[in-house]
Design goal:
Elements: H1 2-13, E1 16-21, H2 26-37, E2 41-47, H3 49-58, E3 67-70, H4 74-86, E4 92-95, H5 100-108, E5 127-134, E6 139-144, H6 154-170, E7 177-180, H7 192-205, E8 213-214, H8 220-224, H9 226-232, E9 244-246, H10 250-263, E10 267-273, E11 279-280, H11 288-304
Parallel strand pairs: 1-2, 1-4, 2-3, 4-11, 6-9, 7-8, 7-9
Antiparallel strand pairs: 5-6, 5-10
Length: 305
């Protein structure tokens, strides 16, 4: 199983430190304690010291080995955690009991945030990348963007792919195959998803998007099913073997991701990419195991950046 390998690889490197924003959250404390016990990553906890210690005691986890940086509000904790990453004391950022808007405000701050110059982009593009281990596909697949960019244009889709490729390479996929997903596999001027997919394919062929192979548009079945490729007689370097699925908008990506996990029995890890360090931004509904997988993935990505 790919996540078992990821856990082992992240243990072997054991050089990551997580800055947790507003760590007075039971699920987050459990996850970072488990990560430290397993030798995956250490953590620095930012937030209300008394509340963090009280929460740890109530859930019976030992945080005696963790540094705590006092912060009275979620916004202050977010700024403190971002500063730790910016200063090099940590290489990953994790959301605790803080509003996502407050965390992202600290990340995007022009003077004190985690802005990145990846791929020469002037403006930071944050996108959510999900790594999913499907028991039906019997392999890992990367899905984006189900959590950040609502309705990406062509330029944003190129940035989303670049972020996803960084994740793929961090997880050991050297030349990932990218499928821009549409309802059909032909270019239809009435369907913007197919036009963007065709443009991204040409951009990749001409070296404008590097480090991967892009071919689209591809319908979902053609992206992941070799049997569908044989039936439809599609000649494509990506069809049936896609490592990264790029969706046209947030609704499609979010729905497919949740279908994989809630109805398909898939394990899941999620990180936000595009800043100068990976951001572990999990939902409270995510299982402890999936939170641990997210930390392990972020640790590997940060060590290969």
């Amino acid at each position: 199983m790919e996540f078992d390998r990821i856990l082992q690889d992240s243990k072997a490197r054991n050089n990551g430190v997580i800055a947790v924003a507003a760590a007075e959250d039971d699920a987050v404390l459990k996850a970072v304690c488990q990560a430290q016990q397993m030798g995956i990553a250490k953590a620095i906890l930012c937030g209300k010291k008394q509340d963090i210690e009280s929460m740890a005691k109530s859930i019976d986890v030992d945080i005696s080995g963790f540094e705590i940086v006092p912060a009275e509000t979620g916004a202050e904790a977010a700024r403190a955690a971002v500063k730790l990453v910016r200063d090099g004391s940590a290489c990953m950022l994790m959301k605790g009991l803080v509003q996502t808007a407050d965390l992202l405000r600290a990340v995007l701050d022009k003077e004190a945030g985690l802005r990145s110059e990846i791929a020469g982009r002037k403006n930071i593009l944050l996108s959510h990348v999900a790594a999913i281990q499907s028991p039906f596909l019997k392999r890992m697949i990367i899905l984006t963007d189900g959590g950040m960019v609502t309705n990406p244009d062509l330029n944003e889709k190129a940035g989303i792919i670049e972020n996803a490729v960084r994740v793929a390479k961090g997880l050991g996929i050297d030349n990932p195959k990218v499928a821009p997903i549409a309802a059909v596999e032909v270019v239809n001027p009435a369907m913007q998803a197919t036009l963007d997919a065709a443009a991204l394919t040409v951009m990749n062929m001409r070296g404008q998007i590097k480090g991967c192979v892009i071919d689209g548009p591809l319908a979902m079945d053609l992206a992941i099913s070799k049997e569908a490729v044989l039936h439809k007689k599609i000649d494509s370097p990506v069809a049936g073997e896609a490592d990264i699925l790029l969706f046209h908008n947030i609704e499609a990506a979010n729905a497919v991701s949740k279908t994989f996990t809630n109805a398909g029995g898939s394990d899941f890890a999620g990180v936000v990419m595009g800043a100068s360090a990976p951001i572990i931004l999990t939902s409270r509904s995510d299982s402890d195991q999936n939170k641990l997988y997210s930390i392990a993935c972020a640790a590997l990505i940060s060590s290969t950046a």
